Structure formats: structure tokens, C-alpha cells
UniProtKB/TrEMBL annotation:
It comes from Chunga burmeisteri (Black-legged seriema). This is RPP40 protein. GO terms for biological process: endonucleolytic cleavage in ITS1 to separate SSU-rRNA from 5.8S rRNA and LSU-rRNA from tricistronic rRNA transcript (SSU-rRNA, 5.8S rRNA, LSU-rRNA); tRNA 5'-leader removal. One of its GO terms (cellular component) is multimeric ribonuclease P complex. InterPro entries: RNase_P_Rpp40. One of its GO terms (molecular function) is ribonuclease MRP activity.
């Protein structure tokens, strides 16, 4: 039975919602400095200049699970989960949500 009531945890798209024809995913790997991330954010916000392209966009920056440093100059305690990421969700009016995740042995970023 593949009905939502047969699962312990389910996700339903919130209303109102919009179905889009296309989505774009770009993955960049390697050691990326903060200035490059700022440039990426600025370039992504240019998509709002064309009204038909995007209502919102997201940029996720994910560090390696065994990275020696996670936030600022803090040592990264990766022994449990290795979480080390942040995510911007930016809206057309340039309001944004910022979600950050840290491992169980890490301090929360300021």
C-alpha cells in the first residue's frame, strides 16, 4: 500500500505550491573560499532579474565530514555525524532564510 497514511513519516507539498518545468543543479567541489561563495550568491540573485526564471533559489555549502575545521577556526568534531553545512534560501525580494547544521561535538556558529 503506497498511500501516505501507510507510512510513519510523510511529506506533502505545502499549499499554495507551483509546479515548474525545469530546475537547475550545479555542483562545485574542492576548497572554496568565502569570497567565492559571496560571488556565487550575487550571481544567483541575478536570476531574479528575469521574472520568469525563479521565485526563489537556494545555495547549500557543505563541508567534508572529516574536515579538520568546521566554523571559524574551531576544530571539527566529526566522530558522531560530521554535519558541517549551511543553506541559504533566497526569495525574489532578497529576503532569505539561513539554515546551519553542526555536528554533535561542534559549537554552534555565532
Amino acid at each position: 500500500d503506497n498511500k501516505s497514511s501507510s507510512f510513519l513519516s510523510t511529506y506533502c507539498c505545502p499549499q499554495p505550491s507551483t509546479i515548474v518545468e525545469k530546475a537547475f543543479l550545479c555542483t562545485i567541489t574542492g576548497f572554496i573560499i568565502p569570497e567565492t561563495i559571496i560571488q556565487l550568491l550575487e550571481q544567483l540573485c541575478c536570476y531574479f532579474g528575469e521574472p520568469k526564471l525563479a521565485y526563489w533559489l537556494t545555495l547549500t555549502v557543505h563541508g567534508f565530514a572529516d574536515s579538520p575545521v568546521s566554523w571559524r577556526e574551531s576544530e571539527h568534531g566529526f566522530h558522531k555525524g560530521g554535519e558541517n553545512l549551511y543553506n541559504f534560501v533566497i526569495f525574489r525580494n532578497l529576503d532569505y532564510w539561513l539554515q546551519m547544521a553542526v555536528g554533535t561535538n561542534d559549537d554552534c556558529p555565532p
